[in-house]
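User: Predict the full complex structure for these chains.
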Amino acid sequence: MKVAASTSDLSSTSDAAQKSDNANGSEWVRLQSSDGYSYLVKRKVAQASGTIRNMLDPQSGYSEALSKICSINERGIILEKLVEYMCFKSHYESINTKEEIPVQEFMERIPPELVLELLLAADYQES
Amino acid sequence: MAPRKHGPEFSAEKTWAELAKNIKEIQNHNAANLSFEENHRFAYNMVLYKSGDQLYNGVKQLVIENLEFLANTIIIPAFTSATSDPAMQNTEEELLLKALRRVWDDHTSNMHRLGQILKYMDRVHTQSAHVPPTSVMSLDLFLDRIINKPSIKTQVVTAILNQVQHERDGYGINRSAVKECVDVFLSLEPSKGVTVYKRDLEPVFLEKSEEFYRKEGEHLATSCDTPEFLRSVQARFEAEESRTHHYLSSQTTQPLLQILKDHLLTPHLNNVISKENSGLDVMIDNNQFQDLERLYRLCLKVPTGLPTLRSSLKTSIVRRGKEINSTSLGDDLVDIEGEAPPEKSKDKGKAKAKASGLETAINWVQDVLSLKDRFDLVWKTSFDSNRDVESTLNEAFTSFVNLNEKCSEFISLFIDDHLKKGLKGKSEEEVDVILDKTITIFRFVLEKDVFERYYKGHLAKRLLQGRSVSDDAERGMLAKLKVECGVQFTQKMEGMFNDMRISADTTKEYLEHVSRTTAPEVEISVTIMTSNAWPITHSASACILPPEMSKACKSFEKFYLDRHSGRRLSWQLSLGNADVVVQFKNRVHELNVATFALVILLLFEEDGLLTYSYIKEATQIEEPELKRHLQSLASGKFKILKKHPPGRDVNPDDQFSFNADFTAPTKKIKVPTISSKVESTEERKETRDRIEEERKHLMEACIVRVMKSRKKMTHNDLVNEVTQQLTNKFLPEPLMIKKRIEHLIEREFLERSEEDRRTYRYLA
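Assistant: Here is the predicted structure of the two-chain assembly.
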């Protein structure tokens, strides 16, 4: 199994205490693609997706919330883009910067051949 | 569209079968075994493949089935039995409420989980299909399947009401169970803006409360005394407020408290305040400040409260005041009885009447003062120094103080008494405090001019007889009056003080003058009184002075008139006094007597036994005065003269002789004149008449003053203006003012305007 860790430097700005990990989302969760790639991201990043947020909701207590492993029914390459976008989103959401958000740059990084599949995935993941 | 790998093999039926199975698992609390992703994808796919309706209705059906199941297994078994044991009832009700809450909790958490899975449906399907999203559907179904079921609704509402009733009856209940249930009611909104709480619970609750408090009010009002009633009512208010706050809704607080006000408090307030053995009066009597404060606070709650309290206070004060009035009147009645017996004891009775008259006056003022103190204390400690209440107190005092037509005289006498013997057992500060209080009573007097007249009279006596405690005290009192009534009021009194000062200087100068020339045998000291400043009524009561004395008078007259030409001196012998050295058998005494008494005494230098008529002839003193002085000499504390036959009253055929056997422990003796302190009825009438006369002048002066500045005025305006200007002296009646105006028209100060007969014009 190949493991690609999307580094957390984007979201490591908060050094909150361990016990409030859940609340501020610095706990790690694993996102697995349908073709066996898995990404460790902070909960906060994962929750940039509405669907994944619900999936991980401890109150509802679905199996994903208990195991903290989410199977995402997408190809690894798609999931990676999703993760990249979620990092991007949670980063710019949290730092509240005045500088312009480089959406354009992000768009340019999306390979055209993935666009359609990514669109569907994004719709599904509500992100 | 890119082909999805599961696309071709998608079957709505199969997917729904899977999903329905899983939803049931969720409802059985087995979410932990289910994959969110899987179920979410099921729902997603169903929506994506146009089976949204099937999904939506399927879910709805499942939820309905589950709700029915919960209702039948949890709520209905918890229905209360018809037990009459309150403790049992209480437990059953608590269980029922908890059951409802359990179903609610179960339902909402299930719906929360479903909502998460069906998120895509909510985002995409419900809007286009014009059906409510799952969160709304959840509430709608709960409302429909649980709350709106008549049996459940009645049971639960009754249980809540009963729980409240238990608590009102003094039992403990599980408040949180009620609260949790009420919260469910509050969060369900069957139609816009109206919660189940508002629709199903609040109206019945208020109705029940009204019924309860109507009974409770009657019960309390009849079975408790006032303090207990107040305590209970206050406790009820607090309890109901905390009830709505803790386990009902704050939106109910106001209507509920209104019910308490309308049924527990307002209808009984009057009754309770006037309760005979424990009402307002008794509470004031017993200094029940806390109870009174409670009463006040409760009265503030309802619009009729304060007016009721105020009118009761007024009644109470006026009643007490009238008692004080009638006590003093009662004393008068006794006096009149004393006067009633035939001729012989008449004067004796009168003397008594006069002595007790002073006491009556002082007692009256003292009583009014302590009444005022009492109510002031209540006002301060219990009524929060409320301005409205204060004005009621003042009103009440004004009304009864002025009911006593002697109030002005009494107050003046009271002040007189304190300024005269102030040092008797009381420090100056104490006297000052008392006088300050007296001023507060004085404020209630409407006819300030009457008071002015009496006060001037008393002040004059004090000054002339040198009996005031101190100049400072007198001036202090004057200053207080000045603050109350303005400069005009005290102008003449200050004039009196001035005269006293100038007289002292003049006397000194005169004594220097006579020491240089031939001095008359009798040394005199004269007080020169400006005639309009002093309230001297008797125009120089005549008296034949012995030659030595009249010589002294003449000598002074000459001295004075030489210095001030154009002035006229008239002697007021009745106001003077004299020191005389008398040789009795045992020792020599120095007597201080009134001038008239000296004149009488001097007659006895020659003759041993004199008849009343001889004395009258020889002195020419007017009869009442003569009698008074003879009485002082013969029947007073020191018996300088002997009266034949002995007795207190002086009759025209009595005879008198010098009492040579007279002894007294001290050398210097002040022979007090029996004084008439409280006026007799005729004197009072006379004073009244004089005051009426004075008022006429005051009114005319005022009318002219007003007209002079305004030139033209309508009748009503003029009357109002004059009334307003004169109120600090007395209350002029419009009719009186009208008469004065007519009088002034006759005298051509004013005329009626030609265009409008009701308008007056000032004639320069």
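The first strand of chain B starts at residue 577 and ends at 583.
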